[in-house]
UniProtKB/TrEMBL annotation:
<dbReference type="Pfam" id="PF00392">
    <property type="entry name" value="GntR"/>
</dbReference>
<keyword id="KW-0804">Transcription</keyword>
<dbReference type="InterPro" id="IPR000524">
    <property type="entry name" value="Tscrpt_reg_HTH_GntR"/>
</dbReference>
<dbReference type="InterPro" id="IPR036390">
    <property type="entry name" value="WH_DNA-bd_sf"/>
</dbReference>
<dbReference type="InterPro" id="IPR011711">
    <property type="entry name" value="GntR_C"/>
</dbReference>
<dbReference type="InterPro" id="IPR036388">
    <property type="entry name" value="WH-like_DNA-bd_sf"/>
</dbReference>
<dbReference type="GO" id="GO:0003677">
    <property type="term" value="F:DNA binding"/>
</dbReference>
<keyword id="KW-0238">DNA-binding</keyword>
<dbReference type="GO" id="GO:0003700">
    <property type="term" value="F:DNA-binding transcription factor activity"/>
</dbReference>
<keyword id="KW-0805">Transcription regulation</keyword>
<feature type="domain" description="HTH gntR-type">
    <location>
        <begin position="15"/>
        <end position="83"/>
    </location>
</feature>
<dbReference type="Pfam" id="PF07729">
    <property type="entry name" value="FCD"/>
</dbReference>
<dbReference type="InterPro" id="IPR008920">
    <property type="entry name" value="TF_FadR/GntR_C"/>
</dbReference>
<protein>
    <submittedName>
        <fullName>FadR family transcriptional regulator</fullName>
    </submittedName>
</protein>
Length: 242
């Protein structure tokens, strides 16, 4: 009884120490004002600076590499990683797909977040949208309409439509987050299938969104985006219930 109670506590303590060390490494990067692509100190230098053994240090460095904080180039050293949302996408994809085997809660919450972002920011994007950008958005709509008419799925064109809607904001973080949501949605889309998807109706909804944006009608554009995501939410709920 005593042993079984001590082992989990020891494991917890080891995990807590590793998390603390990961935080210390990130603080060191910030304190030294290192930028993406800059080299980190060597393992020996980090071990001395942080007061830890090399084996413990390596465990934390591997975690930070998986999180996209640092980049380890064998034979060259360690570097501050460029912006990379792959780890976030992988984690959210797993949680979303796993939730489909239960109530679909995480998958639906992801839709909620994306819906709030797009419906809330569309007006700001419309304020700075150029005529050329409107043309490029309509190109995506036309592609969706053509594919829908042929009975072909248009997930890629759909993703590009939404990316171009918010490209005028010149917000790299927003575009990266939308990219993450689309990676997750593609996987979920495969999981739930497309048997109940009305491609023509979906393309028509995107045409309505474009028309509202082109007309400068912010309330309608926001409302139509909300309705579009309601449809995605409905498909996920139906897939979970079946």
């Amino acid at each position: 009884m005593t042993t079984s109670g001590v082992v989990p506590q020891a494991r917890f303590s080891a995990q807590a120490r590793l998390r603390a060390l990961q935080s210390d490494i990130m603080e060191l990067i910030l304190e030294r004002e290192l930028e993406a692509g800059d080299p980190l100190p060597t393992e020996n230098e980090l071990s001395v600076a942080l007061g830890v053994g090399r084996n413990t240090l390596r465990e934390s460095l591997k975690v930070l590499q998986a999180l996209g904080v640092i980049e380890i180039r064998h034979g060259f050293g360690m570097f501050v990683a460029p912006s990379n949302f792959d780890a976030l996408a992988d984690g959210l994809t797993f949680r979303g797909r796993l939730s489909l085997r239960h109530q679909g809660l995480e998958a639906l919450q992801l839709v909620d977040v994306r819906q709030a972002l797009e419906s809330g920011l569309i007006g700001s994007s419309m304020d700075v949208m150029t005529a050329e950008q409107l043309v490029s958005i309509e190109e995506c709509v036309k592609q969706m309409e053509e594919l829908a008419g042929e009975g072909e799925n248009f997930v890629a064109a759909d993703a590009e439509f939404h990316r171009r809607l918010f490209e005028p904001l010149n917000n790299e973080l927003l575009i990266n987050l939308m990219g993450v949501f689309w990676k997750v949605y593609r996987k979920i889309h495969v999981e739930i299938g497309s048997a109940n998807e009305d491609l023509v109706a979906t393309a028509a909804m995107h045409r309505k969104i474009y028309t509202a944006v082109a007309a400068g009608d912010k309330p309608s554009a926001s409302e139509l985006l909300n309705r579009h995501f309601d449809g995605i939410r409905r498909r996920i709920s139906e897939a979970v219930a079946s």
